[in-house]
Amino acid sequence: QVQLVESGGGSVQPGGSLRLSCAVSDDAVNRYCLGWFRQSPAEKERESVAQIKLDGTTAYANSVKGRFTISRDNAENTLYLEMNSLKPEDTAMYYCGAYHTCPIIRSRAIWGQGTQVTVSS
């Protein structure tokens, strides 16, 4: 079973930056569509933030375009999310997800445990 372990969350002021990392086991970084999702307490479902295909094609939520960048390091088996110009509305638990194809199907995806991002002055 593929395992995903997120890290890099924390508390920042508006306008700040964070980089999230997701360690991916079993060489799955080379075999799965990977993505970052987020969920705040008020939301019923996890929102797709960014996804990346095996060929490197990326897709972003409109709310983060131009501010967030998803990338994968196949040699290091790691998925990243570079987050710049953070806003209070970016506050959420961020999850790394994996699925056989893109777009990732939430109900069938493999998930990490999540890492909290809080943006507040």
Question: Which characteristics define this entry?
Answer:
4-stranded antiparallel sheet, 7-stranded mixed sheet, single chain, mainly beta
Number of DSSP-assigned strands: 11
Using only C-alpha atoms, the radius of gyration works out to 13 Å
How does the overall form come out from the CA principal axes? globular
Mean pLDDT: 96
Q: Describe the largest sheet.
A: 7 strands, mixed
Order of helices and strands: EEEEEEEEEEE
Gap between N and C termini: 40 Å
Q: Give the low-pLDDT segments.
A: none
**What share of residues are in beta strands?**
over 45%
Alpha-beta classification: mainly beta
Proportion of residues in helical segments = under 10%
Task: Supply the number of helical segments.
Answer: 0
Could you write a compact summary of the structure shown?
By secondary structure, this protein is an all-beta fold. The chain has strands at 4-7, 10-12, 18-24, 33-39, 47-52, 58-60, 68-73, 78-83, 92-99, 110-111, 115-119.
General description of the model:
By secondary structure, this protein is mostly beta strands. The chain is 0% helix and 47% strand. The termini are far apart. The chain is globular and about 40 Å long. It has no helices and eleven strands.
